[in-house]
Design a protein that fits this description.
The protein is of the alpha/beta class and 322 residues long. Helices cover 41% and strands 18% of the residues.
Length: 322
């Protein structure tokens, strides 16, 4: 009996093989899962004899070991009208950034994701919130279409470990670990990938991290911290280097929930939530964001970082007391 993944994989292969113009993208402010799933899907398309238009929205160097930026699409957005658009790790169409209009122009669209907040915005949707990562779903789909080669394995393993924080999060299942073992059998340097994807950082990132830790507070089971745009710029950091701060705060003794907010300019404030059980996806959704039960994010339009923080703390307290 065919499963949902079997049917989805069959449909995806059909449309890849019949299409010449194929776009592949994940969400803006891409993380390891977004990057890994996008590049693994692009590699799958290439194995089927097609050359995809690849979009990855990431400015840092952390993932350069799998991301060859020369392969990214640099042509005109206005002129690109793909026959097929495959969206990875993206909860809603608005998070595609510059790719939103291209997605709308595509003849057929596919969506692979594990965010519980996903709106099912494509023609064909594979959304499984219980999966550890979008990369886990990409593995399940890709392995039904072709053999997973070493490069694809490196990309998928990157997404597995970054979205589970090295298999620590509760979304990690026995199937996640089976897939990790199968990827390791492809000869990947898993120790190197973990070191690069989870632990490597530039000095500017370390200084921004240090400022965030110094700014942190713990009250009523919530560990919270903020960074102003001035603080970020003072150490030469970029936004893509701020991953891991909310996770670090959650590891504080006594913390049940954490939230990290930083200014991006133009009255825009980015918020990242983490928890050990409280549904922070609900809190993020109140501000138009989303994610997972234990990890979510949103963007708030406020002129005051303190006002945004107070609004987040109020929502978190509500969720913690329900």
């Amino acid at each position: 009996m065919k499963t949902e993944i079997d049917v989805f994989a069959q449909e995806l292969r059909h449309y890849i093989e019949k299409s010449d113009k194929i776009a592949v993208s994940a969400h803006i402010n891409a993380d390891g899962d977004a990057i890994g799933s996008t590049l693994a899907m692009a590699a799958l398309i290439e194995k089927l004899g097609k050359k995809p238009f690849v979009f990855v929205y990431f400015k840092g160097s952390k993932f350069d070991f799998i991301l060859d930026k020369s392969r990214l699409y640099k042509g005109s957005m206005a002129e690109l009208s793909p026959e097929l658009f495959i969206c990875l790790d993206c909860g809603d169409i608005g998070r595609l950034g510059d790719g939103t209009e291209i997605f709308r122009r595509a003849a057929v669209t596919f969506n692979i994701d594990h965010h519980i907040s996903n709106t099912g915005f494509a023609d064909h949707n594979l959304v499984m919130p219980k999966a550890s990562s979008t990369c886990q779903l990409v593995y399940e789909v890709a392995s039904r279409i072709t053999d997973i080669d070493k490069y694809m394995a490196e990309c998928i393993y990157t997404g597995l470990i970054t979205d589970t924080c090295a298999f620590k999060h509760s979304q990690t299942s026995s199937r996640t670990m089976e897939i990790a073992g199968e990827l390791m059998s492809k000869g990947i340097d898993f120790s190197f990938i973990q070191s690069r994807a989870l632990h490597s950082h530039d000095m500017s990132a370390a200084k921004a991290f240090a400022k965030a830790v110094l700014n942190s507070e713990l009250k009523d089971g919530i560990c919270y911290t903020t960074l102003t745009l001035k603080e970020i710029r003072s150490v030469g950091a970029i936004f893509e280097q701020l991953d891991g701060i909310a996770e670090y705060c959650l590891n504080t003794n006594g913390a049940r929930v954490s939230v990290f907010l930083y200014e991006k300019g133009n009255n825009t404030i980015k918020c990242s939530f983490r928890s050990n059980g409280t549904d922070v996806n609900k809190a993020a959704a109140k501000f138009g964001g989303g994610g997972h039960i234990c990890a979510a994010g949103c963007t708030i339009e406020k002129s005051s970082l303190q006002d945004a923080l107070e609004a987040c703390l109020e929502e978190l307290r509500t969720e913690m007391n329900e």
